[in-house]
Amino acid sequence: MERPGVLRRLGYAVGVKLPARYNDWVLHDATSKYWWARYVLQRSVGIVPLCAVWLLLPGSIWLRLSIVLMAALVAYFYSCAYMEESVEHRLGRQGFPHNTGRRIRAEAAEAKNAEATARYVARYRTPSEG
Prior knowledge:
Elements: H1 6-13, H2 23-31, H3 35-55, H4 61-81, H5 83-93, H6 100-124
Helix pairs in contact: 2-3, 3-4
Keywords: Membrane, Transmembrane, Transmembrane helix
InterPro entries: DUF5313
Pfam families: DUF5313 (PF17240)
């Protein structure tokens, strides 16, 4: 899997489509175990600079900190509320079929649940219970 460089990753974080040679990395980014954490960090690329600029506004420090806190909370709330849709849109823009990310994450969760169920049955079910 070829990983993009720092500049391409920054562009990707703000919505730029990567070249096709990075499709494996994009799919991994959208379906890995901690895909949601990666998503939040990518959204921070756009939110943190705005918050830094708002800290430079004139006024008392408490007012500026309140503005930054409120803006960051609203930005992260809406970013996270539409997280799956945004990731699916990004995958679609890279050329993947609709719901690819959801399907892959669901298959991984199903496999994990099957393993947990098998461990539970092996540990707590007696042979006579079947």
